[in-house]
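Hallway conversation turned thread

IA: we were arguing at lunch whether anyone had actually written out DUF3530 domain-containing protein end to end. Turns out nobody had. So, for the record, here is the sequence (241 residues) and right after it the structure tokens. Reply here if something looks off.
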Amino acid sequence: MKFVLILLFVSNFVFAQVVPNYAKEKRWASQVEYGLMDGDVVWLSANKQPFMSLYTPSETNTKRAALIVHGLGVHPDWAQVIQPLRVALSEKGWHTLSVQMPVLANDKDAVEYITLLTQADNRIKSAINYLQQQGLNADAIVSHSLGSVMSAHYLDNQQHPIKYFVAIGMPDLAVKYLGKIRIPMLDLYGVDDIEVVLKSVKERAQAAKENKYYTQKKVDADHFFNDKDALLIDEVSTWLK
């Protein structure tokens, strides 16, 4: 009986770890909707839960669309990396859909997000379905930091229509998901990036060695491309051409 109780406790503990912080997502959504300047809010659903995405149509006549996947604990209009890219790419021939990924409480670190990767997969699938329902091609994923781990996990484990993968500031947690990815991939990081990115540079390249379309590039920036939006936009949009 004692053993059963222990198992129940462990099971309940693990389950608690895989539930995103929906209250935090709701707060983010309220803030984003109130201050949104570009694009439209689109509510999608995965795991029987609604989540917010931001759709920004292209200024050109195109069917190309890119998913934008943010990093740890933030939202799809985050001022660093995410908002500049989702808007700028719409000016450069891409529809963009920036997706609210699962988040945890502020005191949780990146490792604890591993339990949410399957749920992240389902959100990416839902976003792709939405784009396809609009008659668009989900051609690219452009991701930042922990979002690159979530995106790599999706590409590693799911059948998908994605043709291009941009990973910005990709940390070491993504290494185990790079081996089976064969689509063109840009591994972009900064000379002043965070430690888990800089220390895994060689490991990421080694993991992706079977992908002949893999490119790794270091640029003069930090992890969040502070004061380097123009550089970020130029690097990503040029590579996507």
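OS: looked through it. The two ends are 62 Å apart (CA to CA).
IA: good, adding that to the notes. Residues 1-16 have pLDDT under 50 and may be disordered.
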